[in-house]
Amino acid sequence: MNGSKESSKEGSKERAEGAAGAADAALAQSGWHGSEDAMLDDEAIIALSKGWLEEAVIGLNLCPFANAVHKRGQIAWKVSPARTPEALLEDLGQALQSLLDTPATSTDTSLLIHPWVLQDFLDFNDFLSVADDLLEDSGLAGVIQIASFHPNYRFGGVDADDITNHTNRSPFPMLHLLREDSLDKAIAAMPDSEEIVERNLETLRQLGEPGWQALQQRIRSKATRG
Fold it and tell me: Which of 39, 82, 123, 180 would be a feasible disulfide site paired with 87, CB 3.0-4.6 Å?
């Protein structure tokens, strides 16, 4: 019995290390950190993600709504330890409930970062349908909206190396939980909200790949200093 338990523990450890290694390699390929980096802990993961929010999302004005909630400290940052889509779905359910249980004045939106699962973008994209089903089954469709970001995000009909994909490329795979009411108010307060997408595409085209790589380096350096 003891030998069987030990073998099970070793197998679980090997699977966890394999998932972490795959995530580390995927991040290295995306340019967010070097393959020689040590395993990132939750604090480092959040630091890099916050740097991306501040320098890319807010700095490039990709989301005009992000600055206000960030300055007010109304974003909940959560790192999922999930190694499987099933475990991630459980964490997503908990994150949704946590957001519902918290007043919008305290936490208006939530980012669920999941570095160790769904590193492949196609797998991640498939999971989004599962996430939407969870909203439907929980009666949250029209209450909460889930936006998606990924290191290798790719829009449909767009080449993988197209610079405009970077509007949704983040240091780690993550799910952004948004309150529909808050989103509606933010859009209503911005007359030119319909122009945001096209403006973002033009911003990335002007920045270019060298500019994006320089931005990544600045984010990495900022996270390391922090």
Answer: 82
Q: Is the dihedral of CA 160, 161, 163, 167 positive or negative?
A: positive
CA distances, 138 to each of 92, 97, 121, 165 (Å): 12, 10, 26, 31
Geometric angle at alpha carbon 175, from 173 and 181, rounded to 5°: 160
Whole-prediction pTM: 0.84
Q: Please give the C-alpha separations between residue 67 and each of 70, 88, 102, 158, 175, in angstroms, as whole numbers.
A: 5, 28, 20, 28, 18
Q: Where in the chain are the domains?
A: 41-225
Q: Which residues pair with 33 in a beta bridge?
A: none
Question: What six digits make up the tokens of 154?
Answer: 């790719």
Q: List phi, psi (to 5°) of 31.
A: 90, 5
Convert the pLDDT of each residue in 1-46 to its tens digit. 444 334 333 444 444 444 445 555 555 555 565 544 446 899 999 9
Name the maximum alpha-carbon separation found in the chain: 67
- Alpha-carbon 71 to chain mean position: 19
- Of the pLDDT bands very low, low, confident and very high (cuts 50, 70, 90), residue 148 is very high
